[in-house]
Amino acid sequence: MRVDLFDFDLPPENIALRPASPRDSARMLLVEGGEGLSDHRVSDLPSLLRAGDCLVFNDTRVIPAQLEGLRGEAKVGATLHKREGLRQWRAFVRNAKRVRTGDRIDFGAGVTAIAADRGDDGSILLDFEGDEPVELLLERAGTMPLPPYIASKRATDERDRDDYQTMFAKEKGAVAAPTAALHFTPGLMAALADAGIGTETLTLHVGAGTFLPVKADDTDDHKMHAEWGRIDPATADRLNAVRASGGRVIAVGTTSLRLIESAAGADGLIRPFDGDTAIFITPGYRFRGIDGLMTNFHLPKSTLFMLVSALMGRERMQAAYAHAITGGYRFYSYGDSSLLLP
């Protein structure tokens, strides 16, 4: 499909630079198959779902994966996006032309790395020196890797260490937050439990590739970056049991959805999964493992807007986004939410 079919105009004032407070006070647009659009708050979620439904969260934890350093006298910025070994991370590097294989980059605070090789996508494999776990090095030298549409408008600060982390964050390894889950609070989780709505977690370490623009003119020519994920056998069994008993599996975020769909077979059963996925979902895709999606509002011509268009229909999502823009909904990582029930 032509990528420009997924374009729309977004006024800059609709881009959120800070999350709602409290988190579950964010607005939420309900989009249902065959129904109209309706405006709600995230705190209304227990009344919008049914007893027996199950929300699936991503428990990945964002690491401070944004680094600034020097290669000799040249300034170099690096955003880690995927672990490839115990001490090796692939990174998107600013001023990459100044970095050659074998160069040492000094990121300060005693953190150095050797540029090991250059990938086909222009990324550089960084081999961190020393014996300390890389996560400890990043805590010293790194900052939270805010999306470009926020970082270009303000500096990252100490608040972002909490704001850009979900309440479920446990497994370190993401360089971008599963932002749909930023809206959840302990109070909302208690209300969901009281309403008979179940919850499960899986792990997908979100990579910085999620922010990369689609440069191809046709979706067939776009290559997704792989991300590592895991669904354990017990979780897969419980999710299958939800659907077998008539409940719906609702993915909280496109990261949860993509991992479930990677693990689901043509028979609709979700299998255990442990490995990389580069699934790219566009209109025409037949969903196998999920029955709905809670997600934030995405960028024009992005793979994530293509995904929601695949779930609900492109024209319907164009209309939903037009409604959201006119109604003053806040977009992107720190923005408002939508609940999509086909």
Write up this protein.
It is a single chain. Helix 8 (303-312) crosses helix 9 (314-326). Helix content is 22%, strand content 27%. The chain has a nine-stranded mixed sheet with strand order 2-1-17-16-14-3-12-13-15. It has a six-stranded antiparallel sheet with strand order 5-6-7-10-9-8, covered by helices on one side. It has helices spanning 45-48, 134-141, 148-151, 160-163, 186-194, 233-244, 254-263, 303-312, 314-326, and strands at 27-32, 37-41, 54-58, 60-62, 66-71, 74-83, 88-94, 104-106, 112-118, 124-128, 171-174, 198-204, 227-231, 249-252, 273-277, 292-296, 337-341. A hairpin with a 4-residue loop joins strand 1 (27-32) and strand 2. The longest helix has 13 residues, at 314-326. It has two domains: 3-62 and 162-341, QueA-like, CATH 3.40.1780.10; 66-142, QueA-like (Thrombin, subunit H, Beta Barrel). It is globular, with a radius of gyration of 20 Å. The protein has nine helices and 17 strands. With 342 residues, it is α/β, with parallel strands linked by helices. The model has no long low-confidence stretch (mean pLDDT 95).
Name a few traits of the molecule.
isomerase; QueA-like; six-stranded antiparallel sheet; 17 strands; alpha/beta; 342 residues; S-adenosyl-L-methionine; transferase; Thrombin, subunit H; EC 2.4.99.17; QueA_dom1
